[in-house]
Amino acid sequence: MFIAKVVGNVVATRKNDTLVGYKLMIIQPINANGEEYKNESVAADYVGAGIGELVLVGAGSSVRVENQRKDSVIDLAIIGIIDELIV
Amino acid sequence: MFIAKVVGNVVATRKNDTLVGYKLMIIQPINANGEEYKNESVAADYVGAGIGELVLVGAGSSVRVENQRKDSVIDLAIIGIIDELIV
Amino acid sequence: MFIAKVVGNVVATRKNDTLVGYKLMIIQPINANGEEYKNESVAADYVGAGIGELVLVGAGSSVRVENQRKDSVIDLAIIGIIDELIV
Amino acid sequence: MFIAKVVGNVVATRKNDTLVGYKLMIIQPINANGEEYKNESVAADYVGAGIGELVLVGAGSSVRVENQRKDSVIDLAIIGIIDELIV
Amino acid sequence: MFIAKVVGNVVATRKNDTLVGYKLMIIQPINANGEEYKNESVAADYVGAGIGELVLVGAGSSVRVENQRKDSVIDLAIIGIIDELIV
User: ipTM greater than 0.85, yes or no?
Assistant: First the structure.
């Protein structure tokens, strides 16, 4: 998993059916000091995250293990909202 | 998932059978400001994207979860056409 | 797998149910000479690692193969505590 | 998938049984302008590619979906021979 | 797959049960000219490789396809010992 900041969202009306119903958020990876690295990605929101929030992001087949998501084309998802980073 | 621009397509007559029927598009990853990063990749088109369009791209086993694609060697696919990036 | 140092942990009360019960540790990848590279990631702790310890980290679907973890959204995990690097 | 050029091959007599019978080709990733990026990798050849040819390469579990390959340790494969890149 | 050199090994007594019995080797990725790139990783040894040997390394779920390894947390493995690189 990695730490990111929610910086926006994507509007895409013509998309794969299995994405319907998910908010597609633009996330900016950040390190434990809050510094940005790499470019933005797009993650499906599993926990109701808002713009500006610090989130925990999961990738790959792991974000499709739950029954209701086994058949979705999601490969990146917001799986937690971070209260605190203790370093 | 990530954001990309469709910049061309690949012609490959001798290819794995499971790729037959798919348009193989050359995509250029871009960030939320429209700037290019990384090199181009090749994605199977699931939604009828055209050259120049801004698209949402999925990767890995997630792009093979739908029944009609479970046995295809596709590892990257265009899964949405982006109307708008709200940042 | 890769080598990392445990540098902190993440507090996230609103998170995917399948993460409940796991310590979410912030890990800093290091090479065999102990030098840092890449940015921190977040790994579920499978072996009781402490802050400052040198650990072995596994990624992807491999960290969900054990029965009790098949349905968890974990994609990165601490799977060993390193006693020694012999180079 | 990505675009690459076949630049050589690997000889490895002591190898995992499931690799027996496959030509293991050294491939150099290139972008749509023919420029090299990243380092070489090794891909199993699924389509009879020759040295110097421009090829389409697939990665991860996608290159093991076909029945005859489900139990092979292959994680990278040449899945097409490129006739033309239209950009 | 990629080419690497075995440069050492990891001693980890407290580790996930499914790693028991495997030699955990430190590997340095190299390109076809023998030049080092990226940092070291740790791979389970499937073929009896020794320190200094040139090896073929597989990654991801592909290194868990064989029955005896389906339930192991291994995500990187030495799957061949290279006799020769023909470029």
Answer: yes
